[in-house]
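Notebook, bench 3.
Goal today: get a predicted structure for Sporulation integral membrane protein YlbJ from Geobacillus subterraneus so we can plan the truncation constructs. The sequence was checked against the plasmid map this morning, with no discrepancies at the termini. Length recorded as 410 residues. Pasting the sequence as submitted so the record is complete.
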Amino acid sequence: MKRNWGTKGKTALLASAATLFAFALISYPKQSLEASIRGLTMWWEVVFPSLLPFFIVSELLISFGVVNFLGVLLEPLMRPLFRVPGVGGFAWAMGMASGYPSGAKLTARLYQEKQLSTIEAERLSSFTNSSNPLFIFGAVSAGFFHNPQLGFVLAASHYLGNITVGLIMRFHGIRKERGQPKSRRRPFSLPYALRTLHRTRVKNEQPLGKLLGDAVRSSVQTLLMIGGFIILFSVVNQLLNVMHFTEQLAPLVRRLLHLVQLPEELDIPVFSGLFEITLGSQMISETDGATLLEKAVAVSFILAFGGFSVQAQVASILAEANIRFQPFLVARLLHGLFAAIFTYALWQPLYVETATRESGHIPAFFHILTYARPEEHLGLPPYGPLITMLFLCLYIWLTAKAASERPRRS
């Protein structure tokens, strides 16, 4: 009976939320359109052209057996530290290089290739999703704060927090694995890794054109889904501001800020950052009444938490592979907490002492970054839309070609 009431309550909640969202769209069409265009522009100019190469290359590396090759070499490192196979090292490195949500995409792909168990996939997805260095150093530090040296503290705390989460999540699901046979731990062996590379390529031997086409189609399809979530949460964030929900819910954030001794002026920026990290980071950098250290701690939490927009993207990717989302959500909360703590702990050695030692002798490219526009650190706006358009046309052509080649059902 209780379960039935819980199901009905969930149905009522979802239906009410969807109805309220539709009513808000009708009531504020101009603001919704502006937010939608803003989200579309970000995806069109930045997200698509920056993530597409990583997705395509990742698909090809998996198909050619390079990931299995790296997995054998990284097994002695990844298995003892994080309780995941060596192939997880590839997902970890690519996730840090390309940013959200590449780690989830690669984890789901490896799980579908049966190179990860369910528990291992949940562990791997929890610490392979992070902000990329270009966003931390360029957009946030140089673009929003006009302080490139701040990027060293933010990046160090972000990735140290990520490693700490991985070390903690190694204990996730350990009880379920007790009754299962343990995987054989192989020592570092280059000849065996090369044999694995060859066997994987031969097993998946297909024409190069077919592999390239499948890689492009899969990558573009994922990026289309990501674009939809970016636009959706851009509109949601704008409607929350217009309907004054942000101001009404800000006191809850204010209480949490008071517990950690951060100024209450950060309440609305942090709340906005819980939905979208770019907007939240910019609002935090423009907040008066908070010191640079307090702003850095708040931004570190936002960058590590990822925002509900990123989490929705990851949830959709993991759901397609039947991987639970709850461990990822717990990991994001832990990552935000550890990143904020590391920022406070590393502030003196990595920022204060460095800034004092290098005062008056800042590299020239730091000045260039400081006065450039924030969007220029996220990608190449002049060429981004052209790249997006070309690959969307290629995706349409590949999809139409694949549909025409399917045998017609009688």
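The radius of gyration is 23 Å. The longest helix spans residues 29-64.
Flagging this for group meeting.
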